[in-house]
Amino acid sequence: MKEGSGVNDSPGHTEHYFHRLMELMDVLRSEKGCPWDREQTPETLKPMLIEEAYEVLEALDGDDSDRLCEELGDLLFQVIFHSRIAKENGRFDADEVCRRVYLKMVRRHPHVFGSASYESSADLLRHWEDIKAAEKKTAGQMHDRKSLLDGIPAKLPALYTAYQISAKAARVGFDWPELEGIREKLLEEFDELQEALRENQPDKIREEVGDLLFAALNVARYLQVDPETSLSRANEKFTRRFRALEKHFAEQGRHLRDVSLEEMEAAWQRLQMPA
User: Fold this and answer.
1) Are 84 and 25 in contact (CB under 8 A)?
2) Which fold has domain 17-107?
3) Domains in the chain: boundaries
4) Distance from C-alpha of 150 to C-alpha of 165, rounded to nearest angstrom
5) Which of 107, 150, 175, 258 would give a disulfide with 145, using CB separation of 3.0 to 4.6 Å?
């Protein structure tokens, strides 16, 4: 840290690093700080916030603790950055962000910090929605959310939106009691897609494809599997195997466009077999 910055980075400094990070942000946004940091606004920071969140997700899929720690730090820095700008505008600061989430988590865990008792995590989640509704009522915000599904971010990717929609519905008991029920729903949606195809109805086909994807998403949600991670791994697996297929026929001096489907399928199966 440059001399006169006002931030103590000596090894013996005992102040909590979270507050030191806030001090560092104060310096970066000051007149003697960084020109780029001073120019940033909540709008210009949006892409970086999204990027850092996705980099955390990517790090979670790996087995590198150092990288995960670093990416979580980058995401935290975005929180500090937005909080600092809000403070400049007289709205709130990082301490207020921490205070609010602390009190909220205490309220939402009455089974830990109070006398409530729940029989299962499913029972807890059902009461979780009641607690959230009570909070909104106390804050006078009930008119803003008339449905259990209100509050899901509009810009959330469709995959996660579907996950959140079905998860919220499941919390009040609107769910299949067993996985077999989802399998039957998948088959039902596929039959409806085939019917739309026979009738050659483009709008209906798009609708039924969406219904099929939504039903498939419920498999992940029911099994508590992150759909984005699962699909990403499937993408990586298919890409790896398809590249191997291309290489297999390239070594024979052949391009895939000149190979029959039967040959590709046979090679595909062989390439999946352990050596």
Assistant:
1) yes
2) Helix Hairpins (1.10.287)
3) 17-107, 229-272
4) 9
5) 150
